[in-house]
Amino acid sequence: MSLAISCSQLNVVRGKNHILHDLNLEVPRGAIMGLLGPSGSGKTTLMRAIVGLQKIQSGAIEVLGQPAASKPLREVIGYSTQSASVYSDLTCIENIRYFSALYAHNEKSPEEILEEVDLTRNSHQMANSLSGGERARLALATTLVGSPELLVLDEPTVGLDPVLRVQLWKLFYQLAAQGKTLLISSHVMDEADSCNSLVLLRNGRTLAQGTPAELREQTKQKRMDDVFIALIGEE
To answer: What is the CATH number of domain 30-55+71-234?
Structure first.
């Protein structure tokens, strides 16, 4: 199996706080992997470590066959934080052109990227006047500049209504169909069934990893909230 991400015995400590504890994780290439867990479970810290923004105390992270934070990975990883990383005083197309200028090679033009996230009609609209869903799609568009093979998306659907969440997930499926790997964090357990595979985190530890069907079979539960509670009981 070809892996996009491999974490082995990963530990992260900030100050006196031990955030991640001997965490192991494998994400196959071309998969949509859901990273689920309550607030404070370590999802954001893990994502920051994967993209090379978080110093680790021990363990190893390999991303697309290279150690995390390796210089070549800068061109092939798209990372979206919980707060939309866009410039409010620029239009949609200006935002994408700005981010595209940071890369030596872009597999798609700014216009093609906006079309992919269904923002062509908003091309010359200021980012600060976009709706919540449009702003979320623009934030996703900024991760598509360069030639990304891996997209790391931290709670991209937070605060969106169910209709807008469905629209974003359609985009995620399209990107996966193009061969990209997506690691998507969420604390909304309902989104579990939208993923090929899941990693459930609790208190900085891997609670379980598998497909939604495998985790349901393991716990004999149907609702993912109940799956999570059952797994906690097995600790």
So the answer is: 3.40.50.300
